[in-house]
Amino acid sequence: MGDTFELYCEVDGNPTPDIHWWYADYNRVDSFKQLWDGARKRRVSINTAYGAMGRLKLEDSGTYECRASNDPKRNDPRQNPAITWNRAQATISVLR
């Protein structure tokens, strides 16, 4: 506990893809929530393809996901997000 983790999401495309970071608690991967720079009392740091969290707590354990897309229809609610967004996941376990 109290450590930091860093995640990288390297993508390339034309036009340049949008990158978003998401998080889900253990056993709740169907309920991802978007992360943003400064979230969780300023412990989250996001700079496009780089995500980090410092001063880890037990409740930070879970699945972190990078989503990238340059599909012009990526934000259309009628489109299937699994088709328009590429995803990569990492599971983080914080131990006592």
Automatic annotation (TrEMBL):
Residues 1-84 form the Ig-like domain. It comes from the Eukaryota. Gene3D superfamilies: Immunoglobulins (2.60.40.10). It holds the Pfam family Ig_3. This is Ig-like domain-containing protein.
